[in-house]
Amino acid sequence: MLNEREIESCYLGQFIPVHYHHNMLMDPNRMHNFKRAIDYAVFPGAKVLELGGGTGVLSFFAAQKADKVYCVEFNPDLVQEARKFLAINKNGHKVEVIHADAFDYLPPEPVDVVICEMIHVGMLREKQVDVFEQFKQRYLERFGGPLPVFMPEAVLMAVQPLQKEYDFEGFHAPIIQFEENTVIYPDTVQLGQPVVYSLLDFSQAVNPVIGFDGQFVIEHDGELNALRFITKNILAVVQEQGSTIDWLNHYMSVPLALPLKVAVGDVVDISFRYRAGGSIPSLQASISTTLAQVEQITVDVPQGIEFA
């Protein structure tokens, strides 16, 4: 019989079907950037742990340099897939695929790098934050410090006001949409610039409650009827070059229950609250947008932050 956490996991994305993991193998943006980041972070002789290993591809990348990789996967179908694939790939023998729950597992020895890709837009649905935070506590109790390097190292999240077209052959349906971040959508008007609402640094304690009270400055006349949520995963910080290796999730646009007519120069107050790993409807229900009653506003745009 499933316990409460396992029941929640079935709904919130912890137990992702095999075919979805196959699709991730075909995502060149995800694959290329993780490969680069792992090649940078994992040094010869390292010990590596992957939590939520899926098909085992990220553990495979790590095994090209590491001495030992522990690949933990909860889905028994994926455990079989990972073992099958690793058996036919170079250095796959360095990877031990373990059927276990990432919430409970500890490696038998200290590790240098922990990889976990339980990442959804906005840190919703999947349990990235909870898995990392619980792992830190168990690891320190068992091995003491220092903590290993985490991948991703941090996550930067932003939100952007949109006007979306929700007409589908005459059928009006405001729906949540996931969009490629490299594609221009003619049915979408960007009414303002993205605003950063959260930065999670996994080397520090992370608060699972994510919230925002801020403002947009409207740059185009139109109807504010959706918000675009943007998630940039900082996989590795390349200190020697002062740069990062990043992976940008698909955009998620969430329709607003109460659209607003807006004009150039308007200021819109926005607020929302949700828990990392929570459902998309929990975010959607918390969103509030209203026209601000102000005469003038000065906005400092952070330099060097890009979401493309």
What does this structure look like?
There is one protein chain. The chain is an alpha+beta fold and 308 residues long. The protein folds into 2 domains: 4-117, Vaccinia Virus protein VP39 (Rossmann fold), CATH 3.40.50.150; 154-291, Hnrnp arginine n-methyltransferase1. The protein is 24% helix and 35% strand. The protein has 7 helices and 17 strands. The protein has helices at 4-12, 18-25, 28-41, 57-63, 76-87, 128-143, 280-286, and strands at residues 47-51, 68-73, 95-99, 113-116, 149-151, 154-164, 167-168, 171-172, 177-179, 188-190, 195-201, 209-217, 222-238, 243-248, 251-262, 267-275, 288-291. The strands form 4 sheets. Strands 6, 9, 10, 11, 13, 14 and 15 form a 7-stranded antiparallel beta sheet that branches. It has a 5-stranded parallel beta sheet with strand order 3-2-1-4-5, sandwiched between helices. A hairpin with a 2-residue loop joins strand 7 and strand 8. The longest helix has 16 residues, at 128-143.
Tally of DSSP helical segments: 7
| Strand content range | 35-45%
Number of strands: 17
Task: Please tell me the overall pLDDT.
Answer: 91
Shape: elongated
SSE sequence, one letter per element: HHHEHEHEEHEEEEEEEEEEEEHE
Characterize the biggest β-sheet: 7 strands, antiparallel
What is the fold-level CATH name, i.e. the topology of the largest domain? Hnrnp arginine n-methyltransferase1
What is the total number of structural domains?
A: 2
Distance between the termini: 45 Å
Oligomerization status of the protein chains: single chain
- Rg value: 21 Å
Within CATH, the superfamily of the largest domain carries the name Hnrnp arginine n-methyltransferase1
User: Which architecture of the largest domain per CATH?
Assistant: Distorted Sandwich
Class per helix and strand makeup: alpha+beta
Task: Report low-confidence residues grouped into runs of 5 or more.
Answer: 1-14
CATH class of the largest domain: Mainly Beta
